[in-house]
Amino acid sequence: MERVWGGRSLESLYGRLLPEGVPIGESWEVVDRPDRQSLVRSGPLSGRTLHELWEQKREEVFGVAAPSTERFPLMVKILDARDKLSIQVHPPEDIAASLGGEPKTEMWYIAHADEGAALYVGVQPGMDRDTFACAIEGGTVEQIVHRLSVKAGQFIFVPSGRLHAIGAGLVIFEIQQNSDTTFRVFDWNRMGLAGTPRVLHVAESLQCIDYNDTAPAMGMVDGSVLVDCPHFVVERIQLVPDTSTKWGCAGEFSILALASGDATLNGEPLACGDFVIMPACLTVRERGVRTEKGATLLKTGFAGSRALGVH
Asked: Which domains does the chain have, with CATH numbers?
């Protein structure tokens, strides 16, 4: 996805083939949207869309814990922020529809960070809607957003309603609800790709922001679990060099991501930055993962089916 704040890190870090001279900000890795679809790459279901699997082979691929939603409920991206993203907010569940959008809770795993890189999350203490509206009017929003220095390997949970922006110099794995609704509050007074300012959504944003969300911190690991929320569970599994193991249990669906290091899945090499759907129908023997030099893997599953790690 071309973005005004994007760069070329998908090419330099992960070997992706990108169109020349275009700032690429997002790669939608696992997606089931009306206008965008992940496709099965190989095997007997080659060419099928993620939506077709969701409609026709839900229990076989996604397991008995799969929710009864119209579309696959999660979306996974890689974000390459060469410049700062807009200060923005996603609508909470209770008001999203009334604002013409979809709720969106997400988490960010920092895959790469330049020295001095930062996130902007939450608001400064003492904030309310009227004070925030005055800051927008006066062009001082940047001064009332909480700034966090970050480094690779850290993560943060971003519930709907949390004011946020990704700073420059970051590559992030984003795991989120299946939503494409963003309300921009402030865009750093820059021009968009068309040479004009991008649209802001001030009225909608003021209704969505959680003004009590002050000074949030980076996430803390609970065993292997990074995030366990009503929408998804994300674990980090770190494998030492020269390790062979089985990934998950028979009947368990997950999305596997190689965040760093090297790995093979049933003998097929995974590249850093690869995301793979592990179908529930796989047997334990079909879940073999091996690393020669060591690996950091992220495992995403549905809420209510808390993953148990590597078995």
From this structure: 2-48+72-208 (2.60.120.10), 225-302 (2.60.120.1030)
Please name the amino acid found at residue 151. Answer: K
Residue with tokens 């959008």: 101
Cα 182 to chain centroid distance, Å, stands at 14
Cβ density class 80-116: b for 16+ within 10 Å, e for less: bbbbbbbbbbbbbeeebeebebbbbbbbbbbbbbeee
Residue 189's pLDDT band (boundaries 50, 70, 90)? confident
d(CA 238, CA 245): 12
- pTM (predicted TM-score): 0.95
Report residue 311's pLDDT band, with 50, 70 and 90 as the boundaries: very low
Handedness of CA 242, 247, 248, 249 (dihedral sign): negative
- Which of 174, 173, 166, 171 is CA-nearest to residue 147? 166
Q: What is the pLDDT averaged over residues 188-199?
A: 90
CA 2 to chain centre: 17
* Phi, psi dihedrals of residue 91, rounded to the nearest 5°: -75, 140
- What was the pLDDT predicted at 213? 96
Where in the sequence numbering do the catalytic residues fall? 184
CA distance 189 to 139: 9
| For residue 97, pLDDT beyond 80 | yes
Rounded to 5°, angle at Cα 153 from 236 and 165: 110
